[in-house]
Write a structure and sequence with these properties.
GO molecular function: protein-containing complex binding
Distance between the termini: 41 Å
Protein name: Putative nucleoside-diphosphate sugar epimerase
InterPro entries: ComplexI_NDUFA9_subunit, DUF2867, NAD(P)-bd_dom_sf, NmrA-like
Number of strands: 20
Number of helices: 14
CATH class of the largest domain: Alpha Beta
CATH architecture of the largest domain: 3-Layer(aba) Sandwich
Shape: globular
Pfam family, one: NmrA
Strand order of the largest sheet: 3-2-1-4-5-6-11
Organism: Thermus oshimai JL-2
Strand content: 15-25%
Radius of gyration: 24 Å
CATH superfamily of the largest domain: NAD(P)-binding Rossmann-like Domain
CATH topology of the largest domain: Rossmann fold
Number of domains: 2
Length: about 475
């Protein structure tokens, strides 16, 4: 079949694409930024459409001629009002898909509690399923915690169990849940193409409590752990604790925690009847397989791999620290590009002028270039040119600028901006990279982090403001410096 995959840079989508190709399907992917696909071994075998779920025109291009589509996206980390964003995206997708005559949409949602109220995240996932099923022939898989190398649920269990010999936890960790291995999720998704629209299908392995999930992980790792359930512990407090102990940010930890406030047990009778080929593997085996993949360095995708919407995240992996800020702008990508490619020189850096001046002075005192080099042209940049104490490493007109630091540092640093189309506006993705050299590099980063964080946050906001102000004065007509 010719198949569209949305969410191809995400945890599940990034694993599904190569398996679809292995089975002979023609795959098309919809992405906001093609650069996010770089390095994936399958990128040369797929058709790439640049766009978003809120842009009907790009959706029409993506859906034209396909027989089935996978809907594997969510907005949980995109906006504060993620429920509204998910509803809006699902409605736009479903309406466009219906117009072009899509035969089948396959959606991966979440299990809902049989008793008690569900979390905002789970309610939103269910609402997306309702929207898709109302307008399209659909298969909606509902899954509990997905267990696999790099999955958010697995990483939460892993870090909590590894780092805490004694753990006090809320009493709702005694609620049963139905985890499901990532390989089983992929098997169901692939078989759905052969089966055709099947409605709602709950999937999962034998249920066990979240406490038992951590205890099983400890047994597999040969760890002795004591877990003490408490009568009460607020979900937000528990999420803050997860965010502190694990790499998972609080905005993701909260819906993960809220998802187990009530029992989440799958009724797998329809799954067994429709897909008898899949025999879900037990949780313990899923943990063993995940740990094996991690030990071999064969983690295909990770929960943090997808391009999230508006927000902030800090990552420290593979020896490289990444500080990513994403902001929406009511201006086209070209206006953002013009704003960030005009930084430096006589114009300066928009915010915290005294801090940039002090950093330049300190750099000159230790033999670095400081800020005295300025820039050749007030708005135009070419690869290899100097901008104050930076060097232009890459520039792509209308969309990207990457600067490499040439100031004296205990390591290497880069500052990058991407301007991505998003509906009628755009997204600014600003990333600061630092590759520390030894202990001195780590100390340098963390000692200056309390100052760097507000400076770079204010810089991103100032770029957006400038782009929007330029757009308000004169509607953008295209082009851009390069």
């Amino acid at each position: 079949m010719r198949v569209l995959v949305t969410g191809a840079t995400g945890y599940v989508g990034g694993r599904l694409v190569p398996r679809l190709l292995e089975r002979g399907h023609q795959v098309r992917v919809l992405v906001r930024d093609e650069a996010r696909l770089q390095g994936r071994p399958w990128v040369g075998q797929v058709e790439v459409v640049r766009g978003s779920l809120e842009d009907p025109q790009s959706l029409k291009r993506a859906l034209f001629g396909v027989e089935a589509a996978y809907y594997l996206v969510h907005a949980m980390l995109s906006e504060k009002d993620f429920q509204e964003a998910e509803r809006r995206q699902a409605e736009t997708f479903a309406q466009v898909a219906r117009e072009v005559g899509l035969d089948h949409v396959v959606y991966l949602g979440g299990l809902l509690p049989k008793e008690g109220g569900s979390s905002p995240h789970l309610r939103s996932r269910a609402r997306v399923g309702e929207v898709l099923r109302a307008l399209l022939p659909a298969t909606e898989f509902r899954a509990g915690p997905i267990v696999g190398s790099g999955s958010a649920s697995f990483e939460m269990v892993r870090y909590l169990t590894e780092r805490l010999p004694v753990m006090v936890a809320p009493r709702w960790i005694l609620n049963p849940v139905s985890p499901v291995a990532i390989r089983d999720v992929l098997a169901y998704l692939l078989l759905a193409l052969e089966r055709g629209p099947s409605g709602v299908v709950e999937i999962g392995a034998e249920p066990l409590t979240f406490k038992a999930m951590m205890e099983t992980y400890a047994e597999v790792r040969g760890l002795k752990r004591v877990i003490l359930p408490l009568p009460v512990l607020a979900p937000r407090l528990a999420a803050l604790w997860v965010g502190l102990v694990t790499p998972i940010p609080n905005r993701l930890a909260l819906p993960l925690v809220e998802g187990i406030l009530h029992p989440l047990v799958a009724d797998t009778r329809r799954a067994k009847a429709l897909f008898p080929q899949v025999e879900p593997i037990p949780y313990r085996k899923a943990v063993e397989l995940a740990l094996e993949r991690i030990a071999l360095g064969e983690v295909e995708t990770r929960w943090s791999g997808a391009l999230h919407g508006e927000g902030y995240r800090l990552e420290d992996r593979e020896g490289l620290i990444r500080e990513v800020r994403t902001l929406r702008a009511k201006a086209p990508p070209e206006a953002l590009f013009q704003a960030f490619t005009s930084l430096g020189g006589e114009r300066g850096w928009l915010v915290w002028g005294w801090a940039w001046a002090l950093r330049g002075l300190l750099d000159r005192m230790v033999g670095g270039p400081g800020l005295r080099r300025g820039r050749r042209h007030p708005t135009e940049l070419l690869p290899g040119e100097a901008v104050d104490f930076w060097r232009v490493e890459a520039v792509e007109p209308g969309r990207l600028l990457r600067l490499r630091a040439e100031m004296r540092l205990p390591g290497r640093a880069w500052l990058e901006w991407r301007a991505l189309p998003e509906g009628e506006g755009s997204l600014l993705v600003q990333t600061a990279y630092f590759e520390p050299k030894g202990l001195s590099g780590l100390l340098y980063w963390w000692l200056l982090y309390p100052l760097h964080r507000p400076i770079f946050s204010d810089l991103a906001r100032a770029i957006v403001r400038e782009a929007e102000a330029a757009q308000a004065k004169a509607p953008w007509s295209g082009g851009g410096a390069g």
